[in-house]
Write a structure and sequence with these properties.
One of its GO terms (molecular function) is metal ion binding. It contains one helix and ten strands. It has 121 residues and is mainly β. It has a single domain, classed as Jelly Rolls (Sandwich), CATH 2.60.120. The protein is globular.
Length: 121
Amino acid sequence: MTERKSVIRNIAEVPWKEFPNHFGGALSKPLVDAEGLGAQHVDHRISCYEPMAYVALHTHKVQEQIYHVLSGEGLFEHDGEKTVVRAHDVIFIPPGVEHAFYNTGLDRLVFLVITSPPSDD
């Protein structure tokens, strides 16, 4: 059995990545994931969307997600409705809910994404 250890990760060591179905400068840093740290039950990212960047409408079959907005503002679309979200807003997305996130503001939209269990994207 492989020994499990806690890890401290410096955010500057993790490269930005544009995941599938993310467009226009919708970048994320996978901070805690299966690939980088061997996490089995959670995926934790910080995302930074430039103005006009977005993730296309999509659903997750079994994953729950939390988006925690740190700065900026944008539109969160879920179940056909669009809602303005800003710093300190927290969004919970259960499995099966179609959703998208758009930076419609003037500045970068920065938010945390926590997914459990980790998705395959």
